[in-house]
Amino acid sequence: MAVSAHIDTFAREHLPPIEQQPEFIFELPELQFAAQLNCATELLDRHIDQGRGDRVCVRAPGGLLWSYADLQEMANRIANVLVRDMGLVPGNRVLLRAANKPMLVACWFAVMKAGGIAVATMPLLRAKELVQIVEKGRVTHALCDHALRAELDAAATQSPVLTHTVFFDDASLQGLESRMAQQSSHFENVATAADDTCLLAFTSGTTGQPKATMHFHRDVMASCVCFPPHVLRATADDVFIGSPPLAFTFGLGGLTLFPMSVGASTVLVAKASPNDLLEAIPAFGATVLFTAPTSFRAMAAGARDRAISVPLGGTLRKCVSAGEALPAATRALWYDATSIELIDGIGATEMLHIFIAADEDHARPGATGVAVPGYHACVLDDRMQPVPAGTVGRLAVKGPTGCRYLDDARQANYVNGGWNLTGDAYFMDADGYFHYQSRTDDMIVSAGYNIASPEVEETLLTHPAVAECAVIGVADEQRGQIVKAFVVLRPGHATGDALVRELQDFVKARIAPYKYPRAIEFRSALPRTETGKLQRFRLRAPA
Ligand code: 3UK
Questions:
Q1: Does 254 sit in the ligand 1 pocket, CB within 6 Å?
Q2: Residue 206's pLDDT band (boundaries 50, 70, 90)?
Q3: Which domains are seen in the chain, by residue range?
Q4: Between 20 and 30 A from 535 (CA), which of 70, 303, 452, 485?
Q5: pTM over 0.85
Q6: Which of the listed residues 219, 349, 353 should we mutate to test ligand 1's pocket, taking the one with most ligand atoms within 8 A of CB?
Q7: Average predicted confidence (pLDDT) for the chain
Q8: 480 exposed, middle or buried (CB, 10 Å; 0-12, 13-18, 19+)?
Q9: Residue 82 beta carbon below 6 angstroms from any ligand 1 atom
Protein backbone atom coordinates (compact mmCIF):
# COMPACT_ATOMS: atom_id res chain seq x y z
CA MET A 1 0.00 0.00 0.00
CA ALA A 2 1.20 3.46 -0.84
CA VAL A 3 1.57 5.81 2.10
CA SER A 4 0.59 9.38 1.33
CA ALA A 5 3.18 11.97 2.28
CA HIS A 6 0.58 14.72 2.33
CA ILE A 7 0.10 16.41 5.67
CA ASP A 8 -2.29 18.87 4.02
CA THR A 9 -4.92 16.42 2.74
CA PHE A 10 -6.99 18.92 0.72
CA ALA A 11 -6.30 17.24 -2.65
CA ARG A 12 -7.17 13.73 -1.48
CA GLU A 13 -10.34 15.01 0.16
CA HIS A 14 -11.48 16.67 -3.06
CA LEU A 15 -10.87 13.87 -5.53
CA PRO A 16 -14.00 12.92 -7.46
CA PRO A 17 -15.99 10.12 -5.82
CA ILE A 18 -14.51 6.79 -6.86
CA GLU A 19 -17.59 5.78 -8.88
CA GLN A 20 -17.20 8.93 -10.99
CA GLN A 21 -13.54 8.34 -11.74
CA PRO A 22 -12.41 6.88 -15.04
CA GLU A 23 -11.04 3.38 -15.23
CA PHE A 24 -7.23 3.45 -15.12
CA ILE A 25 -5.30 0.76 -16.98
CA PHE A 26 -1.62 -0.07 -16.65
CA GLU A 27 -0.99 -2.71 -19.27
CA LEU A 28 2.53 -1.85 -20.40
CA PRO A 29 5.43 -3.17 -18.30
CA GLU A 30 6.76 0.42 -18.09
CA LEU A 31 3.56 1.43 -16.31
CA GLN A 32 4.15 -0.72 -13.21
CA PHE A 33 5.08 2.01 -10.73
CA ALA A 34 6.42 1.64 -7.21
CA ALA A 35 4.02 2.56 -4.40
CA GLN A 36 6.23 5.48 -3.37
CA LEU A 37 7.20 7.67 -6.29
CA ASN A 38 8.41 11.26 -6.59
CA CYS A 39 8.59 12.41 -10.21
CA ALA A 40 11.47 14.82 -9.43
CA THR A 41 13.61 11.89 -8.30
CA GLU A 42 12.88 10.11 -11.58
CA LEU A 43 13.16 13.02 -14.01
CA LEU A 44 15.92 15.06 -12.38
CA ASP A 45 17.99 13.45 -9.57
CA ARG A 46 18.29 10.09 -11.34
CA HIS A 47 20.42 11.67 -14.08
CA ILE A 48 22.92 13.07 -11.57
CA ASP A 49 22.97 9.79 -9.59
CA GLN A 50 23.76 7.92 -12.79
CA GLY A 51 26.64 10.20 -13.72
CA ARG A 52 24.94 12.50 -16.24
CA GLY A 53 24.98 15.63 -14.08
CA ASP A 54 27.19 17.51 -16.51
CA ARG A 55 24.90 17.11 -19.48
CA VAL A 56 23.04 20.17 -20.71
CA CYS A 57 19.50 20.33 -19.36
CA VAL A 58 18.06 23.82 -19.95
CA ARG A 59 19.07 26.67 -22.22
CA ALA A 60 17.50 30.05 -22.87
CA PRO A 61 18.11 33.11 -25.02
CA GLY A 62 20.71 35.43 -23.47
CA GLY A 63 23.24 32.63 -22.98
CA LEU A 64 21.85 30.86 -19.92
CA LEU A 65 22.88 27.21 -19.81
CA TRP A 66 22.14 24.83 -16.91
CA SER A 67 23.38 21.28 -16.66
CA TYR A 68 21.26 18.65 -14.91
CA ALA A 69 23.41 19.22 -11.81
CA ASP A 70 22.81 22.99 -12.03
CA LEU A 71 19.05 22.52 -12.24
CA GLN A 72 19.17 20.09 -9.32
CA GLU A 73 21.06 22.60 -7.21
CA MET A 74 18.58 25.38 -8.04
CA ALA A 75 15.58 23.13 -7.33
CA ASN A 76 17.09 21.95 -4.03
CA ARG A 77 17.72 25.49 -2.84
CA ILE A 78 14.20 26.57 -3.80
CA ALA A 79 12.74 23.48 -2.07
CA ASN A 80 14.59 24.54 1.07
CA VAL A 81 13.20 28.08 0.73
CA LEU A 82 9.69 26.66 0.38
CA VAL A 83 9.97 24.41 3.43
CA ARG A 84 12.22 26.40 5.80
CA ASP A 85 11.37 29.96 4.85
CA MET A 86 7.83 29.81 3.56
CA GLY A 87 6.49 27.07 5.84
CA LEU A 88 5.34 24.71 3.09
CA VAL A 89 4.08 21.33 4.22
CA PRO A 90 3.54 18.39 1.83
CA GLY A 91 0.21 18.69 0.04
CA ASN A 92 0.14 22.53 0.04
CA ARG A 93 -0.60 24.13 -3.32
CA VAL A 94 2.01 26.44 -4.87
CA LEU A 95 1.04 28.84 -7.62
CA LEU A 96 3.75 29.29 -10.26
CA ARG A 97 3.68 32.28 -12.54
CA ALA A 98 6.21 33.05 -15.26
CA ALA A 99 6.76 32.87 -18.98
CA ASN A 100 8.65 29.79 -20.19
CA LYS A 101 12.02 30.31 -18.54
CA PRO A 102 14.53 28.20 -16.60
CA MET A 103 13.55 29.54 -13.16
CA LEU A 104 10.01 28.30 -13.74
CA VAL A 105 11.34 24.78 -14.31
CA ALA A 106 13.52 25.02 -11.18
CA CYS A 107 10.49 26.15 -9.16
CA TRP A 108 8.34 23.35 -10.59
CA PHE A 109 10.87 20.71 -9.53
CA ALA A 110 11.27 22.37 -6.13
CA VAL A 111 7.54 21.95 -5.53
CA MET A 112 7.72 18.28 -6.57
CA LYS A 113 10.71 17.66 -4.31
CA ALA A 114 8.97 19.24 -1.33
CA GLY A 115 5.83 17.16 -1.88
CA GLY A 116 3.78 20.22 -2.83
CA ILE A 117 1.22 20.57 -5.61
CA ALA A 118 2.20 22.81 -8.52
CA VAL A 119 -0.43 25.15 -9.93
CA ALA A 120 1.18 26.74 -12.96
CA THR A 121 -0.72 29.70 -14.41
CA MET A 122 -0.74 31.31 -17.83
CA PRO A 123 1.30 34.54 -17.85
CA LEU A 124 -1.50 36.58 -19.40
CA LEU A 125 -4.03 35.83 -16.65
CA ARG A 126 -5.44 38.82 -14.79
CA ALA A 127 -6.06 39.21 -11.07
CA LYS A 128 -9.69 38.15 -11.41
CA GLU A 129 -8.73 34.83 -13.01
CA LEU A 130 -5.87 34.30 -10.56
CA VAL A 131 -8.31 34.77 -7.68
CA GLN A 132 -10.58 32.06 -9.13
CA ILE A 133 -7.62 29.68 -9.29
CA VAL A 134 -6.37 30.54 -5.80
CA GLU A 135 -9.83 30.03 -4.31
CA LYS A 136 -10.65 26.86 -6.20
CA GLY A 137 -7.29 25.25 -5.45
CA ARG A 138 -6.94 26.75 -1.92
CA VAL A 139 -3.50 27.94 -3.03
CA THR A 140 -1.47 29.18 -0.05
CA HIS A 141 1.96 29.73 -1.61
CA ALA A 142 3.26 31.35 -4.78
CA LEU A 143 6.55 31.68 -6.66
CA CYS A 144 6.21 34.38 -9.29
CA ASP A 145 8.38 36.19 -11.82
CA HIS A 146 8.91 39.75 -10.59
CA ALA A 147 7.91 41.01 -14.04
CA LEU A 148 4.44 39.52 -13.56
CA ARG A 149 3.87 40.60 -9.98
CA ALA A 150 1.22 43.31 -10.47
CA GLU A 151 -1.72 41.01 -11.20
CA LEU A 152 -0.66 38.54 -8.51
CA ASP A 153 -0.38 41.30 -5.92
CA ALA A 154 -3.86 42.44 -6.91
CA ALA A 155 -5.13 38.86 -6.60
CA ALA A 156 -3.54 38.45 -3.17
CA THR A 157 -5.33 41.52 -1.85
CA GLN A 158 -8.62 40.05 -3.09
CA SER A 159 -8.13 36.56 -1.65
CA PRO A 160 -7.13 35.79 1.93
CA VAL A 161 -6.11 32.25 0.95
CA LEU A 162 -2.78 33.17 -0.66
CA THR A 163 -0.44 34.09 2.18
CA HIS A 164 3.16 33.26 1.17
CA THR A 165 4.47 34.80 -2.05
CA VAL A 166 8.08 35.14 -3.14
CA PHE A 167 9.26 36.73 -6.38
CA PHE A 168 12.16 35.70 -8.56
CA ASP A 169 14.29 37.70 -10.99
CA ASP A 170 14.17 40.02 -7.98
CA ALA A 171 17.39 41.54 -6.68
CA SER A 172 15.94 42.54 -3.30
CA LEU A 173 16.74 40.76 -0.02
CA GLN A 174 13.22 39.34 0.02
CA GLY A 175 13.63 37.99 -3.51
CA LEU A 176 13.92 34.28 -4.19
CA GLU A 177 17.53 34.51 -5.35
CA SER A 178 18.73 36.06 -2.05
CA ARG A 179 16.76 33.49 -0.08
CA MET A 180 18.21 30.64 -2.15
CA ALA A 181 21.73 31.84 -1.37
CA GLN A 182 20.97 31.35 2.36
CA GLN A 183 19.88 27.75 1.86
CA SER A 184 21.64 24.44 1.42
CA SER A 185 22.05 22.99 -2.06
CA HIS A 186 20.99 19.62 -0.69
CA PHE A 187 17.42 18.48 -0.27
CA GLU A 188 15.97 15.10 0.63
CA ASN A 189 12.96 14.62 -1.65
CA VAL A 190 9.70 13.97 0.17
CA ALA A 191 8.76 10.31 -0.24
CA THR A 192 5.43 10.93 -1.93
CA ALA A 193 3.00 8.17 -2.82
CA ALA A 194 2.60 7.37 -6.51
CA ASP A 195 -1.00 8.51 -6.08
CA ASP A 196 -0.29 11.75 -4.25
CA THR A 197 -1.49 14.68 -6.37
CA CYS A 198 1.44 16.76 -7.65
CA LEU A 199 -0.20 19.17 -10.03
CA LEU A 200 -3.45 20.97 -10.60
CA ALA A 201 -3.87 21.93 -14.25
CA PHE A 202 -6.62 24.37 -15.01
CA THR A 203 -8.36 23.76 -18.31
CA SER A 204 -7.49 26.23 -21.00
CA GLY A 205 -9.58 28.41 -23.20
CA THR A 206 -13.11 27.80 -22.10
CA THR A 207 -15.86 30.04 -20.87
CA GLY A 208 -17.29 30.05 -17.38
CA GLN A 209 -15.83 28.72 -14.16
CA PRO A 210 -12.37 27.18 -14.53
CA LYS A 211 -11.99 23.45 -13.90
CA ALA A 212 -8.94 22.10 -12.10
CA THR A 213 -7.68 18.70 -13.21
CA MET A 214 -5.67 16.68 -10.69
CA HIS A 215 -2.65 14.62 -11.65
CA PHE A 216 -0.50 12.31 -9.51
CA HIS A 217 3.27 11.73 -9.50
CA ARG A 218 2.43 8.45 -11.23
CA ASP A 219 0.51 10.28 -13.99
CA VAL A 220 3.50 12.50 -14.76
CA MET A 221 5.67 9.41 -15.16
CA ALA A 222 2.97 7.63 -17.18
CA SER A 223 2.90 10.52 -19.65
CA CYS A 224 6.64 10.02 -20.16
CA VAL A 225 6.44 6.30 -21.02
CA CYS A 226 3.53 6.34 -23.49
CA PHE A 227 3.73 8.97 -26.26
CA PRO A 228 7.47 9.82 -25.94
CA PRO A 229 9.11 6.39 -26.39
CA HIS A 230 6.40 4.86 -28.59
CA VAL A 231 5.62 7.71 -30.97
CA LEU A 232 8.11 10.57 -30.60
CA ARG A 233 11.23 8.43 -29.99
CA ALA A 234 13.59 11.26 -29.07
CA THR A 235 17.06 10.57 -27.70
CA ALA A 236 19.42 12.08 -25.11
CA ASP A 237 21.04 14.13 -27.88
CA ASP A 238 17.84 15.89 -28.88
CA VAL A 239 17.27 19.58 -28.24
CA PHE A 240 13.59 20.36 -27.60
CA ILE A 241 11.98 23.71 -28.36
CA GLY A 242 8.46 25.07 -28.82
CA SER A 243 5.76 27.54 -27.97
CA PRO A 244 3.18 26.11 -25.53
CA PRO A 245 3.36 27.66 -22.04
CA LEU A 246 4.54 25.32 -19.29
CA ALA A 247 1.24 26.12 -17.55
CA PHE A 248 -0.43 24.19 -20.38
CA THR A 249 0.23 20.47 -19.99
CA PHE A 250 1.11 20.30 -23.71
CA GLY A 251 4.07 22.58 -22.91
CA LEU A 252 4.93 20.98 -19.57
CA GLY A 253 5.28 17.58 -21.25
CA GLY A 254 6.84 18.66 -24.54
CA LEU A 255 9.28 21.19 -23.13
CA THR A 256 10.16 19.77 -19.69
CA LEU A 257 8.98 16.26 -18.81
CA PHE A 258 9.68 14.54 -22.12
CA PRO A 259 13.18 15.94 -22.75
CA MET A 260 14.17 15.24 -19.16
CA SER A 261 12.75 11.71 -19.23
CA VAL A 262 15.44 10.83 -21.80
CA GLY A 263 18.23 13.08 -20.49
CA ALA A 264 17.91 15.49 -23.42
CA SER A 265 17.97 19.30 -23.25
CA THR A 266 15.24 21.89 -23.64
CA VAL A 267 15.39 25.45 -24.96
CA LEU A 268 12.96 27.77 -23.20
CA VAL A 269 11.96 30.81 -25.20
CA ALA A 270 9.77 33.16 -23.19
CA LYS A 271 8.32 34.75 -26.30
CA ALA A 272 7.82 32.03 -28.90
CA SER A 273 6.02 33.59 -31.84
CA PRO A 274 6.54 31.86 -35.21
CA ASN A 275 9.32 34.34 -36.04
CA ASP A 276 11.01 33.90 -32.65
CA LEU A 277 11.00 30.13 -33.15
CA LEU A 278 12.39 30.43 -36.68
CA GLU A 279 15.34 32.36 -35.26
CA ALA A 280 15.82 30.20 -32.19
CA ILE A 281 15.77 26.80 -33.93
CA PRO A 282 19.04 27.30 -35.88
CA ALA A 283 20.56 29.42 -33.09
CA PHE A 284 20.21 26.59 -30.57
CA GLY A 285 20.44 23.68 -32.98
CA ALA A 286 16.96 22.56 -31.93
CA THR A 287 15.94 19.12 -33.17
CA VAL A 288 12.41 18.56 -31.78
CA LEU A 289 9.66 21.18 -32.10
CA PHE A 290 6.33 21.27 -30.23
CA THR A 291 3.76 23.81 -31.37
CA ALA A 292 0.17 24.27 -32.61
CA PRO A 293 -1.14 23.87 -36.17
CA THR A 294 -1.51 27.62 -36.78
CA SER A 295 2.08 28.16 -35.75
CA PHE A 296 3.34 25.50 -38.19
CA ARG A 297 1.29 27.19 -40.89
CA ALA A 298 2.73 30.61 -40.08
CA MET A 299 6.28 29.25 -39.91
CA ALA A 300 6.25 27.23 -43.13
CA ALA A 301 7.57 29.84 -45.58
CA GLY A 302 10.29 31.00 -43.19
CA ALA A 303 11.26 27.42 -42.40
CA ARG A 304 11.93 26.84 -46.08
CA ASP A 305 13.90 30.10 -46.50
CA ARG A 306 16.07 29.28 -43.52
CA ALA A 307 16.39 25.58 -44.37
CA ILE A 308 15.82 24.70 -40.71
CA SER A 309 15.23 20.95 -41.16
CA VAL A 310 17.74 18.11 -41.36
CA PRO A 311 16.78 17.17 -44.94
CA LEU A 312 17.66 20.75 -45.98
CA GLY A 313 20.89 20.91 -43.99
CA GLY A 314 19.43 22.31 -40.74
CA THR A 315 18.95 20.66 -37.35
CA LEU A 316 15.19 20.14 -36.93
CA ARG A 317 14.15 16.49 -37.27
CA LYS A 318 10.86 15.96 -35.39
CA CYS A 319 7.77 18.17 -35.16
CA VAL A 320 4.74 17.62 -32.94
CA SER A 321 1.43 19.36 -33.60
CA ALA A 322 -1.31 19.38 -30.96
CA GLY A 323 -3.90 21.59 -29.33
CA GLU A 324 -6.20 21.76 -32.33
CA ALA A 325 -7.03 19.62 -35.34
CA LEU A 326 -4.24 19.61 -37.92
CA PRO A 327 -5.63 20.45 -41.37
CA ALA A 328 -4.28 18.24 -44.16
CA ALA A 329 -3.29 21.47 -45.95
CA THR A 330 -1.03 22.49 -43.04
CA ARG A 331 0.59 19.06 -42.95
CA ALA A 332 1.30 19.35 -46.69
CA LEU A 333 2.58 22.91 -46.39
CA TRP A 334 5.02 21.94 -43.62
CA TYR A 335 6.22 18.89 -45.53
CA ASP A 336 6.81 21.00 -48.65
CA ALA A 337 8.84 23.49 -46.62
CA THR A 338 10.90 21.06 -44.51
CA SER A 339 10.50 17.48 -45.82
CA ILE A 340 9.38 16.62 -42.28
CA GLU A 341 6.11 14.75 -41.76
CA LEU A 342 4.34 16.26 -38.75
CA ILE A 343 3.50 14.08 -35.76
CA ASP A 344 -0.11 14.96 -34.97
CA GLY A 345 -1.40 14.08 -31.51
CA ILE A 346 -4.58 14.80 -29.61
CA GLY A 347 -4.11 15.44 -25.93
CA ALA A 348 -6.19 17.06 -23.23
CA THR A 349 -5.56 18.71 -19.89
CA GLU A 350 -7.83 16.05 -18.35
CA MET A 351 -5.66 13.26 -19.82
CA LEU A 352 -2.42 15.14 -19.07
CA HIS A 353 -0.97 14.60 -22.54
CA ILE A 354 -1.32 12.92 -25.94
CA PHE A 355 -3.35 9.70 -26.24
CA ILE A 356 -3.96 9.36 -30.00
CA ALA A 357 -1.17 10.09 -32.47
CA ALA A 358 0.81 8.85 -35.44
CA ASP A 359 4.56 8.97 -35.98
CA GLU A 360 6.15 10.20 -39.21
CA ASP A 361 5.99 6.79 -40.89
CA HIS A 362 2.34 6.17 -40.02
CA ALA A 363 0.88 9.65 -40.50
CA ARG A 364 -2.25 9.86 -42.62
CA PRO A 365 -3.41 13.25 -43.86
CA GLY A 366 -6.74 14.13 -42.29
CA ALA A 367 -6.45 11.56 -39.48
CA THR A 368 -5.04 12.24 -36.01
CA GLY A 369 -3.64 8.72 -35.67
CA VAL A 370 -4.19 5.59 -33.61
CA ALA A 371 -4.40 5.02 -29.85
CA VAL A 372 -0.98 5.61 -28.28
CA PRO A 373 0.39 2.42 -26.64
CA GLY A 374 -0.97 2.39 -23.07
CA TYR A 375 -4.32 3.88 -24.14
CA HIS A 376 -7.56 2.47 -25.55
CA ALA A 377 -9.83 4.62 -27.68
CA CYS A 378 -13.19 4.08 -29.33
CA VAL A 379 -16.14 6.00 -30.72
CA LEU A 380 -19.45 5.76 -28.85
CA ASP A 381 -23.00 6.85 -29.55
CA ASP A 382 -25.20 8.83 -27.15
CA ARG A 383 -26.16 5.62 -25.34
CA MET A 384 -22.45 4.77 -24.79
CA GLN A 385 -22.55 1.97 -27.37
CA PRO A 386 -19.67 1.57 -29.85
CA VAL A 387 -20.52 2.69 -33.38
CA PRO A 388 -19.32 0.88 -36.54
CA ALA A 389 -16.19 2.04 -38.37
CA GLY A 390 -16.88 5.16 -40.40
CA THR A 391 -19.70 6.41 -38.16
CA VAL A 392 -19.20 9.70 -36.33
CA GLY A 393 -19.71 9.65 -32.57
CA ARG A 394 -18.16 10.68 -29.29
CA LEU A 395 -14.47 10.00 -28.75
CA ALA A 396 -13.87 7.89 -25.62
CA VAL A 397 -10.47 7.00 -24.14
CA LYS A 398 -8.96 5.27 -21.15
CA GLY A 399 -5.42 4.56 -20.08
CA PRO A 400 -2.95 5.19 -17.27
CA THR A 401 -4.05 8.83 -16.95
CA GLY A 402 -7.55 10.27 -16.87
CA CYS A 403 -9.92 12.96 -15.73
CA ARG A 404 -10.18 13.93 -12.08
CA TYR A 405 -11.74 17.35 -11.65
CA LEU A 406 -11.17 18.86 -8.24
CA ASP A 407 -14.51 19.12 -6.46
CA ASP A 408 -16.57 19.64 -9.60
CA ALA A 409 -19.99 18.38 -10.68
CA ARG A 410 -18.79 18.51 -14.30
CA GLN A 411 -16.82 15.30 -13.61
CA ALA A 412 -19.98 13.45 -14.64
CA ASN A 413 -19.91 15.12 -18.08
CA TYR A 414 -16.36 13.99 -18.84
CA VAL A 415 -16.37 10.50 -17.34
CA ASN A 416 -19.03 7.94 -18.09
CA GLY A 417 -18.82 4.18 -17.54
CA GLY A 418 -15.08 4.39 -16.93
CA TRP A 419 -14.43 6.17 -20.24
CA ASN A 420 -13.10 9.71 -20.58
CA LEU A 421 -15.28 11.62 -23.06
CA THR A 422 -13.18 14.41 -24.50
CA GLY A 423 -16.06 16.33 -26.12
CA ASP A 424 -14.76 15.61 -29.61
CA ALA A 425 -16.72 14.13 -32.51
CA TYR A 426 -14.59 11.53 -34.30
CA PHE A 427 -14.95 8.50 -36.53
CA MET A 428 -12.60 5.52 -36.61
CA ASP A 429 -11.75 4.01 -39.97
CA ALA A 430 -11.32 0.29 -40.71
CA ASP A 431 -7.60 0.51 -39.85
CA GLY A 432 -8.15 1.99 -36.39
CA TYR A 433 -7.21 5.54 -37.40
CA PHE A 434 -9.21 8.26 -35.68
CA HIS A 435 -10.51 11.14 -37.79
CA TYR A 436 -11.42 14.39 -36.08
CA GLN A 437 -14.72 15.98 -37.11
CA SER A 438 -15.41 18.76 -34.64
CA ARG A 439 -16.00 19.46 -31.00
CA THR A 440 -19.28 17.70 -30.23
CA ASP A 441 -20.85 21.13 -29.80
CA ASP A 442 -19.30 22.56 -33.01
CA MET A 443 -21.51 20.59 -35.36
CA ILE A 444 -23.49 22.95 -37.60
CA VAL A 445 -26.95 21.74 -38.55
CA SER A 446 -28.14 23.55 -41.65
CA ALA A 447 -31.37 22.57 -43.42
CA GLY A 448 -31.05 19.12 -41.84
CA TYR A 449 -27.46 18.57 -42.92
CA ASN A 450 -24.70 17.98 -40.33
CA ILE A 451 -21.69 20.10 -41.22
CA ALA A 452 -18.42 19.94 -39.26
CA SER A 453 -16.80 23.37 -39.21
CA PRO A 454 -13.20 22.06 -39.48
CA GLU A 455 -13.96 20.45 -42.84
CA VAL A 456 -15.06 23.77 -44.30
CA GLU A 457 -12.07 25.51 -42.67
CA GLU A 458 -9.65 22.98 -44.13
CA THR A 459 -11.06 23.55 -47.59
CA LEU A 460 -10.84 27.33 -47.33
CA LEU A 461 -7.24 27.05 -46.11
CA THR A 462 -6.21 25.51 -49.42
CA HIS A 463 -7.18 28.74 -51.23
CA PRO A 464 -4.08 30.90 -51.87
CA ALA A 465 -5.69 34.11 -50.54
CA VAL A 466 -6.56 32.60 -47.15
CA ALA A 467 -4.11 32.98 -44.27
CA GLU A 468 -6.44 31.84 -41.48
CA CYS A 469 -10.12 31.11 -41.15
CA ALA A 470 -12.81 30.01 -38.74
CA VAL A 471 -16.23 28.60 -39.50
CA ILE A 472 -19.30 28.68 -37.24
CA GLY A 473 -23.03 28.17 -37.55
CA VAL A 474 -25.21 31.28 -37.25
CA ALA A 475 -28.95 31.28 -36.66
CA ASP A 476 -31.06 31.45 -39.80
CA GLU A 477 -34.84 31.51 -40.01
CA GLN A 478 -35.15 29.24 -43.02
CA ARG A 479 -32.35 26.77 -42.46
CA GLY A 480 -31.99 26.74 -38.68
CA GLN A 481 -28.34 27.57 -39.08
CA ILE A 482 -26.14 28.66 -41.95
CA VAL A 483 -22.41 28.22 -42.36
CA LYS A 484 -20.46 31.42 -41.78
CA ALA A 485 -16.73 31.81 -42.39
CA PHE A 486 -14.42 34.41 -40.85
CA VAL A 487 -11.42 34.85 -43.11
CA VAL A 488 -8.03 36.50 -42.57
CA LEU A 489 -6.38 37.21 -45.92
CA ARG A 490 -2.74 36.86 -46.86
CA PRO A 491 -1.01 40.16 -47.61
CA GLY A 492 -1.72 41.42 -51.11
CA HIS A 493 -5.33 40.20 -51.36
CA ALA A 494 -8.25 42.62 -51.29
CA THR A 495 -11.57 41.95 -49.56
CA GLY A 496 -14.79 42.38 -51.51
CA ASP A 497 -17.80 40.67 -53.03
CA ALA A 498 -15.77 39.20 -55.87
CA LEU A 499 -13.52 37.35 -53.44
CA VAL A 500 -16.53 36.22 -51.39
CA ARG A 501 -18.04 34.59 -54.48
CA GLU A 502 -14.69 33.13 -55.48
CA LEU A 503 -14.22 31.52 -52.04
CA GLN A 504 -17.78 30.18 -52.05
CA ASP A 505 -17.33 28.62 -55.49
CA PHE A 506 -13.97 27.27 -54.41
CA VAL A 507 -15.59 25.38 -51.49
CA LYS A 508 -18.54 24.16 -53.57
CA ALA A 509 -16.16 22.69 -56.11
CA ARG A 510 -14.23 20.70 -53.51
CA ILE A 511 -16.70 19.43 -50.88
CA ALA A 512 -20.44 18.80 -50.90
CA PRO A 513 -21.94 22.10 -52.08
CA TYR A 514 -24.41 22.31 -49.16
CA LYS A 515 -21.37 22.88 -46.88
CA TYR A 516 -20.29 26.14 -48.54
CA PRO A 517 -20.19 29.27 -46.36
CA ARG A 518 -23.30 31.28 -47.17
CA ALA A 519 -21.81 34.16 -45.21
CA ILE A 520 -18.19 35.31 -45.28
CA GLU A 521 -16.73 38.05 -43.11
CA PHE A 522 -13.17 39.33 -43.47
CA ARG A 523 -11.19 39.98 -40.30
CA SER A 524 -7.64 41.15 -39.62
CA ALA A 525 -7.15 38.47 -36.92
CA LEU A 526 -9.04 35.65 -35.20
CA PRO A 527 -9.70 35.41 -31.45
CA ARG A 528 -7.39 32.82 -29.89
CA THR A 529 -6.58 31.63 -26.38
CA GLU A 530 -3.11 31.90 -24.93
CA THR A 531 -2.63 28.26 -25.91
CA GLY A 532 -3.40 29.05 -29.54
CA LYS A 533 -6.90 27.60 -29.63
CA LEU A 534 -9.51 29.30 -31.75
CA GLN A 535 -12.30 30.79 -29.62
CA ARG A 536 -15.33 30.04 -31.78
CA PHE A 537 -17.64 31.21 -29.01
CA ARG A 538 -16.25 34.73 -29.35
CA LEU A 539 -17.13 34.72 -33.04
CA ARG A 540 -20.65 33.61 -32.14
CA ALA A 541 -21.13 36.54 -29.79
CA PRO A 542 -22.53 39.62 -31.55
CA ALA A 543 -19.66 42.02 -32.36
C1 3UK B 1 -8.50 19.58 -28.97
C2 3UK B 1 -7.22 18.41 -30.78
C3 3UK B 1 -7.80 17.58 -32.86
C4 3UK B 1 -9.56 18.54 -28.69
C5 3UK B 1 -3.42 19.30 -25.12
C6 3UK B 1 -1.70 18.00 -26.21
O7 3UK B 1 -5.00 20.64 -26.28
C8 3UK B 1 -4.68 20.12 -25.23
O9 3UK B 1 -5.45 20.20 -24.08
P10 3UK B 1 -6.74 21.13 -23.86
O11 3UK B 1 -7.34 20.69 -22.57
O12 3UK B 1 -7.73 20.79 -25.07
C13 3UK B 1 -8.16 19.49 -25.39
C14 3UK B 1 -8.96 19.52 -26.67
O15 3UK B 1 -8.21 20.17 -27.71
N16 3UK B 1 -7.29 18.98 -29.55
C17 3UK B 1 -6.07 18.91 -28.99
N18 3UK B 1 -5.20 18.31 -29.84
C19 3UK B 1 -5.89 17.99 -30.97
N20 3UK B 1 -8.16 18.20 -31.72
N21 3UK B 1 -6.53 17.17 -33.10
C22 3UK B 1 -5.55 17.35 -32.20
N23 3UK B 1 -4.29 16.95 -32.47
O24 3UK B 1 -10.80 19.16 -28.83
C25 3UK B 1 -9.29 18.15 -27.25
O26 3UK B 1 -10.41 17.56 -26.63
O27 3UK B 1 -6.40 22.57 -24.00
C28 3UK B 1 -2.84 18.79 -26.27
C29 3UK B 1 -1.12 17.72 -24.99
C30 3UK B 1 -1.67 18.21 -23.83
C31 3UK B 1 -2.83 19.02 -23.89
N32 3UK B 1 -3.32 19.51 -22.73
A1: no
A2: very low
A3: 1-18+33-225 (3.40.50.12780), 378-437 (2.30.38.10), 444-540 (3.30.300.30)
A4: 303
A5: yes
A6: 349
A7: 95
A8: middle
A9: no
